[in-house]
Amino acid sequence: MKVLNLYAGIGGNRKLWEDVEVTAVEIVPEIAEIYQDFFPEDKMIIGDAHQFLLDHFKEYDFIWSSPPCPSHSRARFWGSKGGLDYEPPVYPDLKLYEEIILLDHYYDGKYCVENVISFYEPLIKPQTVGRHYFWANFLIRDKRSEGYHQHHGDLKDLASRKGFDLSKYTRVDKRKILRNCVEPEIGLVVLESVRGNTQQTLVSIISKSKQIGET
Fold first, then answer.
1. Which of 44, 74, 92, 206 can pair with 119 through a Cys bridge, CB separation 3.0 to 4.6 Å?
2. Angle between the 95-106 and 49-56 helix axes, to the nearest 10 degrees?
3. Domain coordinates of the chain in residue numbers?
4. Which residues make beta-bridge pairs with 64?
5. Tell me: the pLDDT tens digits for 124-142?
6. Could you tell me which of 184, 178, 192, 171 has the C-alpha nearest to residue 210?
7. Mind listing the pLDDT tens digit for each residue in 84-124?
């Protein structure tokens, strides 16, 4: 399966995938370097994921996109409304919906677009898995992933939970990267749903979760 992994970060969603040929797109070189260290077999593109999607979407069997979420998040909205130490209100970044509409109407493969639960009613109805929205042209069947999301904790806790040792990296905000990292189990649930292996999903999650703790 040829997979396009957009806004890839360090590859939390990709960690438990097997038997895939992945092209990852990440705009921050320091983060792309970390991704490439963990997944050297993947093709890494350092650049604008939004434009890359438009130019290359027809080349892949499955597309995962995780556009930037701060302008949609409830936390930022509540902080701005409450006078906390946040920037002033901003326009929600509607590139999120541009990608959903493009994929839903022009793309023949399977896709999912992931983002946080928004402070406003979604303009296009998503599926909810855990604490995130997913817009997809397939059913994400296994809701047992709902308890996986771990957003809080210190650096050590987050690194252990997400399965990424970032101790050797010095030029990035490691805690922020790990907080933004999609849970590997959710990534696996989505890929298994794409493949239709719903009966094997829970077994795969348990097995792969054990592997995370060993890495």
1. 74
2. 10
3. 2-214
4. 5, 112
5. 999 998 778 999 999 997 6
6. 184
7. 666 788 899 999 999 999 999 999 999 999 998 998 999 99
